[in-house]
Automatic annotation (TrEMBL):
Keywords: Membrane, Signal, Transmembrane, Transmembrane helix. GO terms for cellular component: endoplasmic reticulum; membrane. The lineage of its organism: Eukaryota, Viridiplantae, Chlorophyta, core chlorophytes, Chlorodendrophyceae. It comes from Tetraselmis chuii. This is Thioredoxin domain-containing protein. The keyword Membrane applies.
């Protein structure tokens, strides 16, 4: 009887703690929203925010593994991104509409439309920092209108690299091709444009470009590469970005591995450990200075601990 009394007392104690946390506001509320298919459709058609959606099933192990990741992403972005879960078992019509064929399936939506070019890439991200970085790239405009060289310099300093289009207006065929390329490649590199003749000419003079229209890759340390192909030929412009659209010194990891792997150039690796941030920062100036003279060499930093992880070892075998 005594042990039974202790069990009842323990349960009551736990209930008291739970009630205290709930009513004191200390309980942690989930930030991921679970919606019915119709509720999601209503939100999708009206929301101007980025929507990260997971189709799941309760008995799916990988879906369960994603739960804390999605909560972490929702926590990081707050009201800037809405993270949604939909039970795939009750969403047959929506599954067909969105071509959801298994769980988990993650999709991104913006302004009521799926960002289809993100569908394939987003499925493999199973860590908060990596998924957050991917989502963040889709929070900025596909192409940013820049007003001054100083503004562009700040973008280059923050991003490491910017693809810049200089055009006479925002509606000609060159601008349209540039926008199409940006829609596909934005997840890898930032795009900016100047779409007014006088301002574009001013930028061209600053970067020693002979004429407008033009497309440039601008990197740190005043590295500027000009595309010399046909500005209306999308495949040529994509080849240019695929070859030269890398920062002077990149960061090797899940988000960048396949791009560097498929770039047909020599590679220089700068290995470091997590506690060598100060030494790495000091070394970067010298490495960037060297990298600025070698457009067709891939320079990258590699976290030694990450390189030894199971995930990276699997990537090495691909």
């Amino acid at each position: 009887m005594a042990s039974g009394t202790r069990r009842r007392g323990g349960a009551a104690g736990l209930l008291s703690v739970a009630l205290f946390l709930a009513f004191s506001g200390l309980a942690v509320a989930k930030k991921v929203v679970e919606l019915s298919p119709q509720a999601f459709i209503n939100m999708r058609d009206k929301s101007k925010k980025l929507l990260l959606v997971e189709f799941y099933s309760p008995d799916c192990y990988h879906c369960q593994q994603l739960d804390p990741v999605l909560e972490g992403v929702a926590e990081k972005f707050g009201n800037k991104v809405t993270v949604i879960k939909i039970d795939s078992r009750s969403a047959h019509d929506l599954n067909r509409e969105l071509k959801v064929r298994g769980t988990p399936t993650m999709l991104l939506f913006k302004d009521g439309q799926e960002i289809t070019e993100a569908r394939e890439d987003i499925q493999g991200y199973r860590h908060v920092d990596v998924l957050s970085a991917f989502v963040e790239k889709h929070m900025v405009p596909e192409v940013t209108d820049v007003k001054s060289v100083d503004q562009l310099d700040r973008m280059v300093e923050a991003e490491g690299i910017v693809v810049l289009g200089l055009f006479h207006n925002a509606t000609d065929k060159y601008t349209q091709t540039f926008a199409e390329v940006a829609s596909k490649w934005r997840r890898y590199v930032r795009f900016a444009r100047v779409a007014e003749t006088n301002r574009a000419t001013s930028f061209a003079e600053a970067y020693e470009v002979d004429e407008v229209p033009a497309v440039l890759i601008v990197k740190k340390r005043d590295v500027v590469l000009q595309f010399d192909g046909q500005l209306t030929k999308r495949s040529d412009l994509e080849d240019f970005i695929n070859m030269y659209g890398f920062p002077l010194v990149g960061k090797w990891g899940v988000l960048t591995y396949y791009r560097y792997k498929n770039r047909p150039t020599p590679r220089v690796y700068l290995f470091h450990t997590a506690n060598q941030a100060h030494e790495l920062e000091n070394a970067m100036d010298a490495v960037e200075e060297v990298a600025a003279d070698f457009d067709e060499v891939s320079f990258m930093t590699v976290n030694h601990e990450a390189a030894e992880s199971d995930k990276i070892r699997v990537m090495h075998k691909v």
